[in-house]
Amino acid sequence: MIWIRSLRARLAVAFAAAVFTTVLVFGTATAMAIYVHDREEIRSANDGPGSSSPWVGDDLHDAKKLGVAMLLMSPFAVAGAALLGLLLAGRALTPIHEAAERARKALRGEGALEMPVRGTGDEWDELAGVTNDLLRAQALSVERIRAFSANAAHELRTPLAAMLGEVQVTLRRERSPEAYQAALRVVEVEATRLGRLVEMLLALARADAGMLNPDSIQFDLERAARLARERAAAAHAGADRRITLRLAPATALGDPLLTGRVLDNLIDNALRHGGEHVAILVEAEAEVVRVSVTDDGSGVPKGIRSRVFERFTREGAQASGFGLGLAIARGLAEAQRGRLWLDESSAGGRFVLELPSGL
Predict the structure, then answer these.
(1) What is the mean pLDDT of the chain?
(2) How many helices and strands in the chain, by DSSP H and E?
(3) 24 plus 91 within the same structural domain
């Protein structure tokens, strides 16, 4: 049936062929059964195989009549089976034709692609439901990639434009060594900013691609918090006086380097955008360990709380940041089978990192 291109026609032909084969087999078996049964009756009545010859002709005649009847009825049975097969196949394939039409419209840009769900709960509805979930997830992913690419291009262009402008202005005329040094310092600052941005973008790309390959070892979360405080004190003037620790013995299961980077981002975010004081709390439970970073500032504005972990979200933040720190922190936490969330019940800003317990 390769020459029949329509799946509906193939199903109808297969249905008709099945009915015809059934009729043929049933007719042949019935004729043979009648013939054998009559011969046994004749043989028993005459008590001898030789006296059954007058009845053989009648047996064959009955079998032939049955065969002729079956032969005459076969075209009608096959035709009816073909029509019924076309009807059933058409109804069964209706959602496929509708899905194809929707796909053609989506290809022409006339809306998003979505498979039809009939509400019958059959196999098609199950497939259509899963496919629609997949299509929506892919559409969301594509939209996120587009927004991410646009934002990344804008952020990359800013320091590049600043460096190029500074160099061009400096090269317009001869300048003193001090002026050249001042211009180079501007270029250095912008190049450092550009390098930080590229490093952040690479970290996000690796997290999205599942290429972080974090370790899964037991480590001291209390010590990781202390080291994060020391790094923050070295990076921010006066941070050692602003950060307080409330630590409990806690053993986490994950990657200490990635966890340290998460804590660095959370502490940096609190020092930049929070209040005067930052508290780091480490606590342990039976199956999980948590570390929270809390500041005494005004907290995250309600309008952006649902988007605080989105990339390039900088509403209400300083213009010097990229809006990537919290997004990277959540990606690193999830790579270790952990969680990172904003505690909206806190008066100030409070972010909680949860990791599997190593005990």
Answers:
(1) 78
(2) 8, 7
(3) yes
Structural domain contains residue 313: yes
Q: Rounded to 5 degrees, what are φ and ψ at 15? A: -65, -45
User: 45 and 85: one domain?
Assistant: yes
Nearby residues of 244 by Cβ (< 8 Å), 6 or more positions away: 277, 278, 279, 280
**Residue 271 contacts residue 308 (beta carbons within 8 Å):** no
Is residue 316 pLDDT above 60, yes or no? no
Express each pLDDT in 166-177 by its tens digit.
Answer: 888 888 888 888
Query: How far is 178 from 170, CA to CA, in rounded Å?
Result: 12
Please check whether residues 221 and 198 belong to one and the same domain: no
Give me the number of domains the chain comprises.
Answer: 3
Q: What pLDDT digit, counting tens, does each position of 253-276 carry?
A: 999 888 998 999 899 888 888 888
Tell me whether residue 208 is exposed, middle or buried, using C-beta atoms within 10 angstroms of its C-beta: 0 to 12, 13 to 18, 19 or more: middle
Question: Model's pTM, two decimal places?
Answer: 0.56
SS3 state of residue 255: coil
Question: What is the extent of the structural domain holding 200?
Answer: 124-208
Indicate the residue type of 243: I
